[in-house]
Amino acid sequence: MTEAVVGLSRLQFALTVMFHFIFVPLTLGLVWLVAWWEWKYVRSGNEKFLRMAKFWGKLFLINFVLGVVTGITMEFQFGMNWAEYAKYVGDIFGAPLAIEATAAFFLESTFIGLWIFGWKKLSKKMHAAAITIVAFGTALSALWICLANGWMQNPVGYTLRAGRAEMTDFAAVAFNGTGWLIFAHTMLAGFVTAGFFVLGVSAYHLRRKNEVPFFKASFRTAAVFTLVSAVLLVGTGDRQGVRVAKHQPAKFAAMESQWETETGAPYTVFSWPDRANERNAFEFLKIPKGLSLMGFHDGSAVIKGLRDIPRDERPPVLPVFLSFKLMVAFGFLMLLAAFLAWLKGKRGRLESSPRFLRLLVWLIPLPYVVIQLGWIVTELGRQPWIVYGLMKTSDGVSAVLAPSQVLLSLVLFTLVYGALGAVDIYLLARYSRRGPAGARPDGGHIKASRILEAEGGRP
């Protein structure tokens, strides 16, 4: 197996996964907000909430469809580019993915069809139930995928037999704490992404005095949703750090550029890794016992340094280190922005804060950036292992691939995915700017006076 094939295969899979994950978080979060607004309509009868479900539901559907298209190609890569990996651990890794496809994906696909075409054919409650089942289906799909990834991060419930890893305990795989923690963190990241998306689009229209009652209501709901999710996201991030320190000490050491094994290790606020000399080029502002507290919630805990890990089992330190630091910094920026959005929405000062509304529009991409950084930390930090401590990434690549084959498919994927990304951004931007004005639940148009009446205003 040549290094070129391994490198190109890793790059191709990394790019396709990262591109696919542009769509997943918004889908995971926005569907719950759409379900919330439709149930509000069922309970209150106020057509404002139905219009909200229709408007935000249209944006959800655009994102959902493109997410499905980009996700399918990754399934083929396991059998084509990563055949040795599939052969070695397919008995285990394939089980949660099979459940995801046959149960979760078909569940959400079926009921999203009912939701799209059932506006005039289902009762209000049944129609709201359909989008709620879609929401549960997307969460269930994410769960099984996260459990598959959790097994790669922390392999459990298996035995090695005849040159393969075979499952011996399905319950251990299904209830792997690493997978469930990844799932919780992923769902909350999706909630925050959807929250900032709704806040940003609402802020865009509020600055222009478009549909003020409509977008004020959207803004306030999203502000609470985003703030609660952001707080919980920080909490699950902390728990993930503890689990990484315990099960993946090399990744934890790379995240913090910790070279020496220390008891009661301090947390260094400012540093820069020097991989060649196995030290930090500089270190500034140390918090005593801070790193031990972060890693184990115990100030006297031992933090394993990179020097005590074989060179061929260390992840690339600089990209993991930088990605982690930026992820944390941007994560707390999101938390601050979510708090300010909730505060201003609660005090009714949205129209008097045009600069903050403009900022929220510019902050729409921020959760996407944070999620991509988190993915780099999680997956690049696991290297050189494809299954931590069990199988190296270089051993999982298909044995019969030629560099030209991988390069060709990489170029084609890049072109096609680039076009799909442009279409997604165009459609989301177009329908976001258009707003819900004049939209009737059945897709027709009504007069402005009827809209105001439905919202409790006067013509």
The whole-number mean of residue pLDDT values reads 84
With helices defined by DSSP (H or I, 4 residues minimum), what is the helix count? 14
Rg, nearest Å? 24 Å
Helix content: over 70%
Q: Could you give the distance between the termini?
A: 73 Å
Query: Which stretches are low in confidence, meaning pLDDT under 50 for 5 or more residues running?
Result: 438-459
**Beta strands, count:** 8
Integer tally of domains: 1
Return the structural class: mainly alpha
- As a percent range, the share of strand residues is 5-15%
Strand order of the largest sheet: 1-2
Shape: globular
Major sheet description? 2 strands, antiparallel
**Helix and strand pattern:** HHHHEEHHHHEEEHEHHHEEHH
Folded structure, characterized:
This protein is mainly alpha-helical. The chain has one domain. The chain has helices at residues 3-44, 47-80, 83-117, 124-153, 170-174, 177-207, 212-247, 249-256, 290-296, 317-347, 354-362, 366-380, 403-434, 448-454; strands at residues 158-161, 164-167, 262-263, 267-274, 279-287, 302-303, 385-387, 391-392. A two-stranded antiparallel sheet has the order 1-2. Strand 7 and strand 8 (391-392) form a beta hairpin. Helix 1 packs antiparallel against helix 2 (47-80) and helix 6 (177-207) packs antiparallel against helix 12. The longest helix has 42 residues, at 3-44.
